[in-house]
Design brief:
This protein has 4 helices and 3 strands. Strands 1-2-3 form a 3-stranded antiparallel β-sheet. It is of the alpha+beta class and 82 residues long. It is globular.
Length: 82
């Protein structure tokens, strides 16, 4: 995928980084729902605006909050603290 898909990349968060692997449609939809993005089609996930919206959402979350989000909403992600 090479970073083109907004659901498959590493983003900054409040206290570290988070690797997201939400490639499958149901995972991408859960990630977009959490970030307040209305559509989670493949085309949407390739848009720069989607990358920016997800990056902004994740930047406002702590590693702990993201770990909780992953469990609650079944989003494949892994947090990395410095």
């Amino acid at each position: 995928v090479g970073g083109a898909h907004a659901g498959y990349r590493v983003y900054a968060c409040q206290d570290g980084r988070v690797a997201v692997a939400a490639l499958e449609p149901h995972f991408a939809r859960a990630l977009c729902d959490a970030a307040g993005i209305v559509s989670a089609t493949l085309q949407t996930m390739l848009l720069p605006a989607t990358h920016q919206a997800i990056a902004k959402y994740l930047a406002g979350q702590s590693c702990q909050a993201l770990e909780r989000l992953a469990l609650e909403r079944d989003i494949p992600l892994h947090t990395m603290r410095p």
